[in-house]
Input
Amino acid sequence: MAGVSLKCGDCGALLKSVQEAQDHAELTSHSNFSESTEPVLNLVCSICGKPCRSKTESELHTKRTGHTEFMDKTSEAAKPISLEVPKVVDSEEDAVSSACSGQPEEMVVPEVDKKLLEELEGMGFPAARATRALHYSGNTSLEAAVNWIVEHENDSDIDQMPLVHANTKVEDPKPSLTPEEMKIKAQELRERARKKKEEEEKRMEREREKERIRIGKELLEAKRIEEENERKRLLALRKAEKEEEQRAREKIRQKLEEDKAERRRKLGLPPEDPAAVKPSTPSVPEKKSALPIRPATKVEQMRECLRSLKHNHKDDDAKVKRAFQTLLTYIGNVAKSPDEEKYRKIRLSNPSFQDRVGGLKGGIEFLELCGFEKIEGGEFLFLPRDSVDMAVLNSAGSELNSAIVNPFFGVL
Output
C-alpha cells in the first residue's frame, strides 16, 4: 500500500507533503522522515468548518471557541503522497551565476498580507511574531495566524523575523473566506482578546481586594489586642488604688482605737472588754502589684510628686489643699488659653506664688512635669507654646482633682 503521509522519526508528527516536511525540518532541525500508511488526522468543526489535524489542536479550538462537535474526514482527505520535491520558481540566470560564483544566496523577509499584518499588530502582537505566524500558517486568515501563535508561543525563535531565499517566488494564496467573513472573524478575535484581558483584570482586582481585607483584619486584630491589654492594665491599677485606700482606712481606724484607749487610760477608766468590742474588719494584707515592671509614666510621676508634697506638709492640710488648688488654676488657665503668654510665664520671686506653691517642696517640680522650664537664670518658669501638650495638661488636672477630693490621698 502506498504511503499517505510522511512521519517524522524524531517527534512522530504526520505531514501531508514533502513541502510540509521541509518546513518542519526548517523549524525543528529534524531530518529523519519516512513514508507512513497512517493518514493525517482531519477533524473539521461542524460549526465553523475549521480543520484540525490533531486531537491537541481540536482541544485548543474547543477551549477558544466552545465548539465541541467535529466531523472526521480523515479518509476523504487521505491521498497517496508524492515524494517529488516541489520546484521553486527561480531566476535561471541568478541560479547559474550563484552556482558559478559559489556565493550564498541572499535571505529576505517573506511577503505576507499587509492587511492581516496590520490587524495582528493592532491586537498587540510584535511585528516579527505576526510576520512569522502569517508565513507559517499559509498567509490565509487572521484566525489561522492567531492559532499558530497560540500553538507556538513557547518556541524560542517565535519573535525572530523569518527569512526566505531572495529568489523564491511566493504565490499569493487564495483566501478561504470572503472579505466580510474575514472582518467578522477579526472582530471575534479582537472581542475574545478583550474579554480575556477584562477577565484577567477582574481576577487581579479580586486578588488585590482579598489582600486589602486580610491586611485590614490584621490591623483590627492588633488594635483589639492593644486595647484589651490597656484595659487589663487600667483594671489592675484601679484595683491597686482601692486596696491602698482600704489599707489607709484601716490604719486610720486603728489610730482612732489607740487614741480612744489612751483617753480612757488618762480618765482612769478600765479598758474596754475585748469581747464587747465589735470585731474589726481584717486588715488587707499588703501585697506586691502583679503588674509588670515598667518605667513610670508622666502621670505616675505627677501623682508621686503630689503625694510627696502632701507627705512633706502633712501637718498643714489647709496649706496643701491651697497649693493643689493654685496649681490647678495655673494648669487650667494654660489649657483654656494656650496662646496667652501671661498664663505660661510665672515669676518665681512673686510673694503670692512663693506662699502658695514655690515655698512647698514638690510644687515647682510638678509644674516642670507639666512642661514648664526655668529661664533667665532661674527667675521665671516658662512653658513654650510649641511645648504645650493638652494631653499632659488634662492628666495633670485629673490628678490635682483627685488629690483635692480624695481625703485619703497620700495618707500612706
Observations:
- Residues 88-93 have pLDDT under 50 and may be disordered.
